[in-house]
Design a protein that fits this description.
Elements (H helix, E strand, L loop, with lengths): L2 E6 L6 H7 L2 E3 L2 E4 L2 E4 L6 H9 L4 E3 L4 H13 L4 E5 L8 H9 L6 E3 L6 H16 L4 H10 L4 E6 L4 H5 L5 H9 L2 E7 L4 E8 L1 H17 L10 E7 L4 H14 L6 E4 L2 H7 L4 E7 L4
Parallel strand pairs: 1-2, 1-6, 6-7, 11-12
Antiparallel strand pairs: 3-4, 3-5, 8-9, 8-13, 9-10, 11-13
Helix pairs in contact: 5-6
């Protein structure tokens, strides 16, 4: 059986990287004003950040059903027997449920994984799926395995600007104004399904410290029975300045010297909600290699 692995750009995997790895990518739509763009195809991070600097109306959307099914059809027509599709968490978007409905028309050839991941944790799920497929696992078994370990992951995000959280209705205008005056920054977390408030700190430096402490606690408690070799720690963000991104990566590297810490830009679709200069990090269980 030839099993194709498909994900969306919220995984942080670029189209170029996907081609290199033999993975298929669904670009997530970004809406600026009345225009819709596709990540990695018709909009870049720099272009999105410029629009944010102009305080334009920005939002994200689900991929169109036609785009998704056309991609699945082309994959199956090219010689693959089945597909594992790993979209962003169902707790953060309706795209997973939409894909599951579409998959019902494919007679057991498309398996949609809902393992509640996004960004760096979704990325590791994709690599796990690829590894399992190459090891001879069927699409059904890959789905089962990924969903079994769905909650072996944590994400923490610190948001520098409250503008887009306010626009998205996640924080009231009054609370945003008060927090801005006293330099109060939220630390948000994803522990499976949804984006929740974790802490509020004065300034991004204290937010960074709080996120590192939270990951250390997760490793010592929730993930204490998982071997070091099966844990990945990764950083992400919406930094305009590459030096700021490297500083955040190195800060986390210094806190976890036994791990190889990497950095990935948050997808444009996620940036629509976090705004510019957000910092994120995650710890996640991976399959044995």
């Amino acid at each position: 059986m030839r099993t194709a692995i498909v994900t969306d750009t919220n995984s942080g995997i670029s189209i170029e990287k996907a081609k290199e790895l033999g993975i298929f990518i669904v670009p997530m739509p970004v809406i600026i004003g009345e225009n819709t763009y596709l990540e990695h195809q018709t909009i870049t991070h720099a272009e999105l950040y410029r629009a944010m600097r102009q305080h334009l109306d920005i939002s994200s959307s689900q991929p169109s059903p036609g785009f998704v099914t056309d991609l699945w059809d082309s994959i199956l027509a090219s010689g693959y027997d089945e597909i594992v599709y790993i979209p962003m968490s169902s707790g953060l978007s309706g795209s997973c449920q939409s894909a599951a409905m579409l998959a019902k028309d494919y007679n057991g050839k498309v398996f949609v994984v809902d393992n509640h991941r996004i960004s760096v944790t979704q990325e590791t799920s994709v690599y796990d799926a690829k590894h399992l497929a190459e090891s001879g696992f069927s699409a059904a078994r890959i789905k089962e395995r990924l969903e079994k370990h769905a909650y072996d992951a944590s994400i923490y995000i610190s948001v520098d600007s409250l503008e887009y959280l306010k626009k998205g209705g996640r924080i009231t205008p009054a609370a945003a104004a008060f927090a801005t005056v006293i330099n109060l920054k939220p630390v948000l977390t994803i522990q499976g399904d949804k984006l929740d408030s974790f802490a509020k700190m004065r300034g991004m430096k204290l937010c960074e410290k709080k996120m590192i402490e939270a990951m250390q606690k997760d490793i010592e408690t929730r993930f204490s029975d998982i071997p070091h070799t099966q844990l990945v720690i990764a950083t992400a963000g919406t930094f305009e300045n590459p030096a700021d991104a490297e500083h955040w990566r190195q800060t986390v590297q210094n806190a976890f010297p036994d791990y190889d810490i990497r950095y990935s830009p948050l997808s444009c679709s996620i940036a629509c909600h976090t705004g510019i200069n957000a910092a994120g990090a995650g710890v996640v269980r991976i399959e044995k290699r």
